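> forwarded from #structure-qc
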């Protein structure tokens, strides 16, 4: 099926994480979108011909001001948005450098421990990505490294 025939909106994003500068505890980055008054993962629609991972990292940079280092691919979310099917591919990504500047699209970012991030996410569909990230981090670190 050509893209002209496929009505699916394709998007990509990341579950961005870092170690707290003070305590070294794991923190996840959420973005607040004033248009929807919601908290979500940084994500956005792919540009024509853009690879999903490149689009995910572009969206992270645009929405959070972070340059992120991608890790494991996380589950893809599929749902309907404005009556159309939407597919969002996600990756785990470690924040390397961040310099957030509020925009019309994203006016705030929060760095929260995993359980607080899960509770703050507006859409229940986004919450399982917390567990997926934790599992991915456990798989890439020695036992006990992610918690």
């Amino acid at each position: 099926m050509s893209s002209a025939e496929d009505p699916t909106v394709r998007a990509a994003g990341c579950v961005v994480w870092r170690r707290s500068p003070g305590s070294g505890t794991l923190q996840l980055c959420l973005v607040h979108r004033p248009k929807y008054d919601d908290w979500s993962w940084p994500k956005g629609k792919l540009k024509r011909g853009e690879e999903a991972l490149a689009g995910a990292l572009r969206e992270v940079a645009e929405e959070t001001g972070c340059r992120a280092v991608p890790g494991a691919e996380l589950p893809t979310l599929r749902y309907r948005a404005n009556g159309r099917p939407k597919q969002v591919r996600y990756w785990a990504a470690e924040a390397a450098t961040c310099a957030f500047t509020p925009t019309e699209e994203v006016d705030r970012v929060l760095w929260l421990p995993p359980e607080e991030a899960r509770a703050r996410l507006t859409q229940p569909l986004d919450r399982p990505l917390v567990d997926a990230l934790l599992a991915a981090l456990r798989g890439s670190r020695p036992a006990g490294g992610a918690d």
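QC bot note: Confidence is low (pLDDT under 50) at residues 142-147. Residues 52-64 form the longest helix (13 residues).
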